[in-house]
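Summary: Need help interpreting a holo structure output

Steps to reproduce:
1. Submit the protein chain below together with the SMILES for zinc ion.
2. Request a joint structure prediction with the ligand placed.
3. Inspect the structure token block that comes back.

Expected: a single structure record containing both the chain and the bound molecule.
Actual: see attached output.

Input attached:
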Amino acid sequence: MALLSNEEKQERNRARCREYRENNRDYLKAKNAAWYIANKEKIKEYKASRVRENRIHSQNYYWKNRDSILTSEMNKAKSRRWRANNREQERVRVREMRWKNIELTRIRAREYTSRRKSKILGNPWSLSISDNDLSRLLRDKCCGYCRTAIINTPHLDHIIPISRGGRHSISNLIISCQLCNLTKYNFTVAEWRYRHGAKVWWVGG
Ligand SMILES: [Zn+2]
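--- attached output ---
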């Protein structure tokens, strides 16, 4: 018998467990349900204790970092006041910042359109996307599908299209080249690959 490497052993064990779970689905379900009923009070108590601990933890955090929290709140209020009093200057500042990060601004605009679309269609679990997440996406200068370098404007693509019920959130977004984005249209990755023989480097997960 051939010797198995550790990874292979792990994979074999995992497969066995999976098989066991699949073969004994009803039994395991009943077992779990019985355990839940038997330990209902304990679970309740455990959850309550976690809530208590969290509350104490955040109180402690507040008192420990009170000064810095208050200072940062004060600074925020101060800059809010400044912005209110210097509207014209603030407008210029924002415009300059947008030009400086023109790529992010463009992507942000596209993000806004798709967020609206997703809202209109009522797709569940859609979330707005932070600037940090968007710039993280933009940091990758290659297409997320075909891995060629992006020369023109990067396109923001929904892996599962919004029109097909995909959620608008960072987990469903990828930066792609123009060709990939336009040929993918509103197909899923599998459909797109089937229709166009597309070269998809990203395999999902
Ligand atoms: Zn591509």
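--- end attachment ---

Reviewer comment: The pocket of zinc ion is lined by residues 143, 145-146, 148, 176-177, 179-180 (CB under 6 Å). The two ends are 34 Å apart (CA to CA).
Status: needs-info
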